[in-house]
Amino acid sequence: MDRGDLLNWIRCDGPGIVDRFLPLGARADLEGVIRDGRHEVDADAYLVFVSIRALLREDGMASCDSDREAGQIMALLNA
Questions:
Q1: Which residues have a Cβ under 8 Å from the Cβ of 41 and sit 6 or more positions away?
Q2: Tell me, what's the pLDDT at 79?
Q3: Distance from the CA of 36 to the CA of which of 17, 27, 43, 46 falls in 20 to 30 A?
């Protein structure tokens, strides 16, 4: 899947992507960061980011590449 297709999919069904690809423990990690209080976090954006990253890794992308690509996709979604 190319970046454009993925962006369209996220725009059409972001909650569905989160439901389908959100890694186990991601919500607990998010709650820990929020409880810690040292960082401001957009909870929805975080859940979308980790779901995109998990989708990319499932498709075989390396960890560091999936982190970078997920970040670029998030930037494009917010542009």
A1: 30, 33, 34
A2: 80
A3: 17
